[in-house]
Amino acid sequence: MGKRLNKETQLNIVKEALAGIKVGVLARMYDIHPETIRSWIRDHRDFIPAEEIPFADEHLQELQRLQEVEQRYEKAVKVLGEKELELEILRELLKKQAPAYLKNSK
To answer: Where, if anywhere, are coiled coils annotated (predicted)?
Structure first.
């Protein structure tokens, strides 16, 4: 991190952010701190003409696809974590020698 990028590259990253790519995705892709990108956006957004903001090119489509994959991954990890917790609880219940539901039936 902390690498210096030329003004043209900075502006391209700002344009990608203005086109809808999340700062976190851009930060990981370019290995730049997200706050640095936010600062560039604040500094440059008012001076970038709308016609220079990219849309629907392959690069942006790939970034948007990456963003969607990351969101699905995060959701899957959450669901998987919940399922693992449920399994752990069930395993613990099975380990008990005399579960409560058997005591009441005697």
So the answer is: 56-86
